[in-house]
Amino acid sequence: MYSVGFALMAAGVKSSRSAATVVVAVLLLFITVIMSVTVTDITPVFRDFATTLAVPIAAWAGLFTAEMIIRRRRFAAESLLNRGGVYPDVNWLNLVMLVVASVVGFGLTSATVTWLGWQGYLFSLFGVPLSGDLAGTDIGVLVALGIGLLTPLVAGVPTVRRQEQVQTQLQG
Length: 172
Fold this sequence. Notes:
Elements: H1 2-10, H2 17-38, H3 42-70, H4 77-81, H5 92-107, H6 121-125, H7 133-136, H8 140-171
Helix pairs in contact: 1-2, 3-5, 3-8, 5-8
């Protein structure tokens, strides 16, 4: 709860640490009460929730890993901490591809709980039954990871090289 409170503050919520932690605690209590009243078997909920979280995390991990692979230099720490340095405020290509990879990944996962029943829409589009073995593999997590890995490797190298060149010029 304490870490999520920090995350809320990092996301721009203006509050003290203790207030953010109390907000998170109340929210978690509310979710717990709702789930205890409505869910009879928790196993599918955990499985489907974990898969749902895994898709965007896998896409982000792919993007981050590929960026680390193509970099020849360490990050310019000062530019990470302050605006207007080597790095832009937003890497739009990576942000857009994080969303694209997540959308594709969610389309290639399946869920058994009703409130996540929207997943698997690409299986339906390709005529793959959601009750079949392929849909049960949740291959969308791997596809999201692959899209994340390929994005910087295919399209991000020139941007990273420019950043490294600017970093060299600022240091030299």
